[in-house]
Specification:
Layout: H1 3-8, H2 14-29, H3 34-40, H4 46-57, E1 62-65, E2 70-73, H5 80-111
Antiparallel strand pairs: 1-2
Helix pairs in contact: 2-4, 3-4
């Protein structure tokens, strides 16, 4: 999805499109902190910014590194190493989530009396 498609996305409200566009445009200029983005779209809840970034990540290569304390759009070969580090960090977080689900699945199976027809697994 390109910028114009986000700008005109029908499933989003006008407020959501406006927020996404402002955040995208700012990250496209260079590193932007969460606080800066919150101020940009005039919100106090950082969850709104994180949700916007998560949405943008579905269509653009967003680099977010804990050490850099900010977000930016990867655009050039100069972003390659940071993109690799971001992939490793995101993959690690995803693996941690999956590992936690394994124990929940074991619990559900045990509680259901090991019913193999369980649709959770």
């Amino acid at each position: 999805m390109k910028y114009e498609q986000i700008k005109n996305e029908k499933k989003l409200t006008k407020l959501q499109r406006d927020r996404l566009n402002k955040i995208y445009q700012r990250m496209n200029l260079g590193v932007a902190t969460k606080q800066e983005l919150m101020s940009l779209i005039n919100v106090k809840d950082e969850r709104i910014v994180r949700d916007c970034i998560s949405y943008i990540k579905k269509f653009y290569p967003v680099i977010s590194l804990s050490g850099a304390k900010g977000y930016r759009i990867a655009k050039t070969i100069d972003d390659l190493e940071d993109a690799k580090h971001a992939i490793n960090a995101e993959t690690g977080r995803a693996n941690d989530i999956v590992d936690g689900v394994v124990e929940l699945k074991k619990f559900v199976m045990e509680m259901e009396g090991r019913n193999e027809k369980s649709n959770i697994l």
